[in-house]
Amino acid sequence: MTVDELRAKAAERQQTCSQIKKMIVSRLDLEVEPDWITDDQPLFGRGLELDSLDVLELYVAIEAEFGVALYDSEMAVFGSISRLADEVDPRLGATA
Amino acid sequence: MTDIVYGQVGDATVPLRFTDLSDEYKVLRERAVALDLSGHTLIEISGPGAVDFAQRVLARDVEYLTSERCMMSLVLDDDGRVVDQVLAFGREDGLLLESSVGAGTRLLEHLRAVNDEDVEIVDRSADLTVIGLEGPYAWGVVGRLIDGELASLPFEAVSDTVWNDVEIIFARTGFTGEYGYQMIVPVESAADLWRATLEHVTPSGQEALELAMLEVRQPIPRLETAGDVNVIEIGANWLVDITKDEFVGKEAVLAAFESRQGRRTVGFSGGDTVPEPGARVLAGGEDVGEVVFAVRSVGLGTTLGLARVEAGLAAAGLELTVEGAGVTTLTSPYIVPKSWSIPII
Q1: pLDDT at B2 over 70
Q2: Which terminal residue of chain B, N or C, has fewer Cβ atoms less than 10 Å from its own Cβ?
Q3: Where are the transmembrane segments (chain A) (predicted)?
């Protein structure tokens, strides 16, 4: 791939990540600006410090926003914003 | 224990390996290990202005940090560069700060230099030290070693407790995504507690610990903050509370954030060799950044590292080139901790 093609591919993922961040900040009423959250930021415990009640809220929000049901998923899908992006848009598919 | 390899990390001499990196790493990720964290310096902040001082010096909000809580935070200089990453423990008469490995001298100098509140700043490393436990079954070790009730403390909860008639500060913490605990113990009792811990688990050195930290993007200050880089470029935003009214370095961090300029950090894997820090990263033949650091990953069976590249290329799933070898950028965490699927019983 050329560098411009790589930038375009990166932009696609960054766009999905940005959408997820806005959704999380809005649905969980967080004070932080969405862009302050990094794509690799952990969501539970460390990082955004979300809890199990927040997970339930996110299940509903993700299904409403992206049409993807994650109810039976392992906690690993919440390992980071970028990991969540892989789940809501499998075309990105870059899970380690 | 005759094969222990020690190394100098900043101002501390620490065990890098007790036996074998691969073995220690696997035990950390599969069962539990003991960690000699004596290279972490403990600094006591006390006096009437202690909380105000800490609130101004730490990048996260510690105003209501009680003696039953601890919190990880960055300490920044006026230019927004990382001085250290600390674990702050609330105490009755102030706070106790635990430096990252080998960074105590640098942290202490910085704290004293910005001590406008005239608080008392005391290096406690002569009389207190830290022993850690980490791994998916570390909670079981806590039960056998001290008290099973402590194992299920919430993340970053702290309990003053007693082990073998010795008062210790016990905390649920963690650096690797696995269940993690720390025991702050008087130096004169540390050897006894270490020996007692080793009746239940084997020890792990700094190399296995840092590999596991990298895999979950837990910042490793000594490897990630060299040079003229800011918090945004490191990607350690979550260790800064940008909504807080004021703290040292806030203006510089905000300026860097709002500029949307600079580089960003992304993980990568691939290649048969381990590139040195500073090795160039190419995208489509163009130079777009450099390697921050890289290691051989036991879990992935390949090279794993961090690269700092132009912001528009800091995303997972890209095929880049480092020193002629193809690498792929990654989604964090690079290894899913086993603890995420194992409940504390």
Answers
A1: no
A2: N
A3: none
